[in-house]
What does this fold into?
Amino acid sequence: MSQFVSVRNVSRTFEGRGQGVTALSDVSLDIRPGEFVVLVGPSGCGKSTLLRSIAGLDLGFSGEILAGGQPVVGPNRSRGLVFQEARLLPWLTAGGNIAFGLRAGPEEKRARVGELLDLVGLAGFEDAYPHQLSGGMAQRVAIARALAPRPTILLMDEPFGALDAFTRIKLQDALRDIWRSQNVTTVFVTHDIDESLALGQRVVVMSARPGRISQVIEVDLPYPRDRVSEAFSRYRNSLMNSFGLH
Ligand SMILES: Nc1ncnc2c1ncn2[C@@H]1O[C@H](COP(=O)(O)OP(=O)(O)OP(=O)(O)O)[C@@H](O)[C@H]1O
Ligand SMILES: [Mg+2]
It folds into this structure.
């Protein structure tokens, strides 16, 4: 399958008083298996709406979305989700949160949780409660939880948006390594230009009113990306220009 996620002529209007809000207008996008795609654009351009539609959390769109060749008709365990807030259950430990949705026996769960904590750089934190974790650690747990059922697609909506700049870069690097080792198709929403360029193989630029894809940029830079290199700056400058920023 050369197109793993296929968004075809998707439009989404939210009804309201007056004429409603067109959040997405005729958006089409094909994502390859294993690809890392970033959706970037200003507030209100429809990034979350598009991501939620791919997730199956918002089914009010017209057009068609296929994941793994199947129409998206609702949320599915093959699509893992991470949001801006970790949304951990406060009465469960890190390990408990990661294991929460797993269908497996206790031994298998324990092994899988250990594996995932290693993967996200939190080995040894199995018994920590959410209130004992920093924001960055909580997001690492959220990533582990999303990956627990071995999804083929990882959907992330500004997962690092609430973190400080240092933690954010650390998490970007961790996610990049996780993506490369797990080979999971990833769609990542951000309004941060540097973040989009640090992570994306392709950066999909969206514009608002109505929400459309205005540009798709192939980021031809090897990983790990050097954020202070000239080549990186050239991409940054060109993206800034396309948003009318200087
Ligand atoms: N449930 C809803 N009901 C009504 N309008 C909505 C709803 N969800 C989104 N919208 C509208 O659709 C447009 C796109 O919203 P969306 O949340 O997808 O943007 P976004 O790009 O994710 O923005 P942000 O960067 O601020 O998160 C906005 O104008 C928003 O007000
Ligand atoms: Mg959003």
